Structures are given as structure tokens and as C-alpha cells.
Amino acid sequence: METIHTADALRLAELQKKDAAISGLKTRLAAVPRELEKLEVEFARKKASMGAAREALLDLQKRKKEKELAIAEAEEGIRKHQRELNQVKNNDAFKALLGEIERDKAAKDGLETEVLLLLDELDKAAGADSAMQAELRKAQEVRDAEAGALESSGRALAAELAAAEAERAAQAGGIEKGLLEKYETVRASRAGVAVVPVHEDPATGKLSCGGCHMALTPQKTLDVKKSDTFAVCPECRRFMYLERTIYG
Ligand SMILES: [Zn+2]
Predict the structure, then answer these.
(1) pTM
(2) What is residue 197's three-state secondary structure?
(3) Residue 213: its H or E element
(4) Which domains does the chain have, with CATH numbers?
(5) Which residues are placed with Cβ below 5 angstroms of ligand 1, an ion?
(6) What are the E-state strand segments in the chain?
(7) Could you read off the pLDDT of 42-80 as tens digits, one per residue?
(8) Which residues does 197 contact at the CB level (< 8 Å), separation at least 6?
């Protein structure tokens, strides 16, 4: 099979162009879910990194609550011991109660100082947390907008692909069956490209295969210039044509 002479040469060259376009559309369409997944992963990573600020805030709130409970307990102790002061007759017991009250008061003072320090830390932590939350909301908006754009471009690509496949089927229907089968066989083994225009070196005029770049022999050069003719590349078996011959 050195040359293929066929009235369907132009139709087959056009079919190859449609197949190349379809393959490009499929590649772009397949990239859409991967891009969406990437957006989700990036957002989840951002969200996780922001969780630390929230944790710190919650921890401080918990510690503050514990201190406040301890203060309430100290106050209760003071009140209880003060009530007891009114009932004791014995001087030693009276002194002991006063000592208890002093200890409770000192403990309460210490706790109140700690609460003040915690309030300061809480202020800062709350600020950091709300800044993080605002950043997260913004990141979410960006993610949603990008995902929306990706989804709509996916829908447009799917529609374009369906239209291209319908056109391709119509184009294939006009081509002789045996030739179409040969085309499909080569296409399957050559990364989807069976029909290639030969490349013409603008300086030397030398021709080479548009698929594997092998230089054409003088005989192939003559073959490819015949009308309605593909020359078969001895290297990659693709059907080569000269643009100006097929489209001229
Ligand atoms: Zn070749």
C-alpha cells in the first residue's frame, strides 16, 4: 500500500481534522473534574490551617470559664466562713476562720488577676479568629466562583463535543467503508492521527511526513503530488497529503 488514490481524499483529510478537534475537546472536558477536585483540596487545606486559630480561642474561653467558677467557689467560701464567724464563741476557732477567709480572698485575687490576663489573650485570639474566618469566607467565595465557572465551561464543552461528534458521524458517513476502516486502524495505533499533511521546508522545498517527520523519497514526493492521492509513510504508515493538492 504505497499510495491510496480516492475520491474521498478531501473528505478523509477533513474527518481527521474533526477527530483531532474531538480529541482536544475530550481532553479539556476530562480536565474539568480534576480542576474541581483541586479547588476542593486547596480549600480544605486552607480551612484546616484556619482551625488552629479557632482551637486557641475555644481553649482560652474554657480556661476563663474555669477560673470564673473557681472565683465563685472562693466567694462562696468567704460568705460561708463569714456566716460561721457570727456563730463561734471560741477565740481560736474565730482566728482560724479569719485565716480561712484571708486565704480565700488571696486565692480570689490571684484568680481575678489571671482572668484579666486571659481577657487580654482572648481579645487577641478573637481578633485572629475573626480575621481567619473572614479570610475563609473570602476563600470560599473565590472557590465557589471558580467552581461555578469550571462547571459552566464543562457544560459548554460537553455541548460542543456532542455537536462535533454529530458532525463527525455525518462526515464519516460520506466516506467509502474500506478506506474508513484503514483510517481507523492507523489512527488507533498512531495516537489518533492517521492522516497528515506533509511538511514543506520553505527554504529547500523538501517534503517530510507531518506525523513522524521522515523525509520523503523522490518517489513519495511524486506520489503525494498526484491529485486525490495519499502517499503512505513507510515509517509511520500514516496517510500523507499535500495541502495544495488536496485543497487546491
Ligand atoms: Zn511518517
Answers:
(1) 0.74
(2) strand
(3) none
(4) 22-175 (1.10.287.1490), 180-246 (no CATH)
(5) 209, 211-212, 233, 235-236
(6) 3-5, 195-197, 199-200, 207-208, 229-232, 239-241
(7) 999 989 888 888 899 999 999 999 999 999 999 999 999
(8) 13, 210, 240, 241, 242, 243
